[in-house]
DNA sequence: GTTGATAAGTAAGTGTCGCTAACATATGTA
DNA sequence: TACATATGTTAGCGACACTTACTTATCAAC
């Protein structure tokens, strides 16, 4: 990561920062034309360079996608952490806020969201993805552990956090797939998360104090 | 649907049944080379026809994918119904069996599974997808309603069925993304489904009888 | 049966894309 | 200033999506 940053700062020779601009262009194309509806050629055009220039920064097309996805996962994690930070540590609201950030990411960038979960399986060196994914999951685990006042690495916390994540992940996907339309009137996402969260995690243990 | 079937039976002029063979070839390619790792050219080669032949059966590449996805959704629904039918109607096992069929579909055909949920959003005439999706959801609703001994169109049944679906959907995705690895020892899918199902739906109401 | 409409295939061509090779130029450093 | 390297270009290859024009098989009507 540090290497990349250093390199990016250094390599603003000719163009400015082609690498970052390409990632941005691809992100936009993925969002507007679907996960596989982008081309290196089009991204190059938008960045104002020849169609061969990207290959000085990326080995091939999958590697660009990989960079875009890793970037997206990083932003997703940040969003979740910022969401949790808005509420007292250990509160149910903090848990819900993590889920809400997840859902909002999916809704605001459905193309990228789909890409993240459409790509990570099909890739060979999935270690990077798994690493980032684990850190994302860690946010959920952290909020869950604080709420339950239990160690984060305990089995029950991991289990419950996973259930929460599954639910939120599924809900996010079904929402952007519009499979949720015309089913029935439902509470908005926030109260939804709060009630399901409480249902899955149970009441907060008594001795626990909310730390701000 | 009937039109297509008639047409397919009628149009076995030269080749046999190119349309079905193309769908099968694409399905295989999607599974082995990823959702976007297939080409009409390759599918044509496998079917032993020229690369222009498919265009007598499908308008363009997305339409082939659409057919493949609709076919997959149909099979998914069948699997779920068959799963539920193995247990007494109204039992928690029947509910879990629907979920298990869903998970098993995702695990056994991850490429297709990803395609189904990667495509349905990006498509223009999503009505067909929504229709099929609704029928799939109907299976979950049916099992849930029977378990709770409540009408299927009631709000609470729809709500709880949706929560169940979200959870199973999320779990399926995270499973094939291998994001579940090395988290903690966990029960297998079946007992997992049973415990989560009971947690979400609660105990079965007393008056309800299991009908076989 | 012959005929004619049509369904189902082929061959060839166009434009785009992914990617490579060979070459040109800007940059930081010795 | 000279050199290594990073970053860009043009040109070109092979593959692919899709079209057009042409061929051939099938069925229905006479």
Distance between the termini of chain A: 31 Å
Mean pLDDT of chain A: 86
Major interchain interface with per-chain residue totals: A-B, 44 and 44 residues
Oligomer designation: homodimer
- H/E element string of chain A? HHHHHHHHH
Beta content of chain A comes to under 5%
| Backbone structural class of chain A | mainly alpha
Q: How would a textbook summarize the main sheet of chain A?
A: none
Total beta-strand segments of chain A: 0
Radius of gyration of CA atoms of chain A, rounded to a whole number: 20 Å
Number of helices of chain A: 9
Structure summary:
Chain A has 212 residues and is an all-alpha fold. The first copy, chain A, contains nine helices and no strands.
Fold and architecture overview:
2 copies of one chain form a homodimer. The first copy, chain A, has 9 helices and no strands. In chain A, helix 2 crosses helix 3. The N terminus of chain A is likely disordered. At the A-B interface, helix 6, helix 7, helix 8 and helix 9 of A face helix 6, helix 7, helix 8 and helix 9 of B.
Task: Give the key terms.
mainly alpha, elongated, homodimer, 67% helix, DNA-binding, 212 residues
